[in-house]
Amino acid sequence: PPELSILNCCSPSQLEGLCSFLQLSTCPEPFLVRFCSWLLALTPDLSYTSAAVLAEQLFLRRVLSLTQPPSRHLMAALASFCSKYSHPLCRVLLAAVLQEPGEGAEQTKLMCELVEECLEPHSVQLVLSQVLEVPLSEKLLPVLQAVLGRQEVLPPELLDLLVLTLCQQARAFATSLSYAKLVTAVLTAYQSQVS
């Protein structure tokens, strides 16, 4: 709809107010899918800041409250949003998931699915750098595994940080099968760079 061009004219606080007024954080998921498809058709593209505000308003509450696998509508909306705005989505969504205490099993699975199926290579690197900024935990190992499964070429400094982190955590994860699989994956994928 032409009215959506207003999204390009709003300041971040105005956009938050508009999202609140439209109740986008609680709108039915089928509408969420349609709204995200409208965003893709918007010209010019949203600014990074506006996309980050929308990512927070549209998805954050839904993702953090997951207690079972996400619906196909939610996944379709996320995939649609990711196709153009994966960087701001990662910044908003992953940062919140990483700071969330506890297991967060459904959130972790969702992040793995986004990494495996939706994110652009530069966003996959962003996910890796964000995960390596926080203390490593068992719940984050599958996300790292998903990143490695993409078999992207990593910048040397990021690969060095990954290897260093894994080395430093070896004692803490001495009995973890997920950690052992992760180390094996690193050694297999990057054997020429890891001495």
TrEMBL record:
GO terms for cellular component: Fanconi anaemia nuclear complex. PANTHER family: FANCONI ANEMIA GROUP E PROTEIN. Pfam families: FA_FANCE. Gene3D superfamilies: 1.25.40.480. Residues 1-194 form the Fanconi Anaemia group E protein C-terminal domain. This is FANCE protein. Transmembrane segments: none annotated. One of its GO terms (biological process) is interstrand cross-link repair. The gene is Fance. InterPro entries: FANCE, Fanconi_anaemia_gr_E_prot_C.
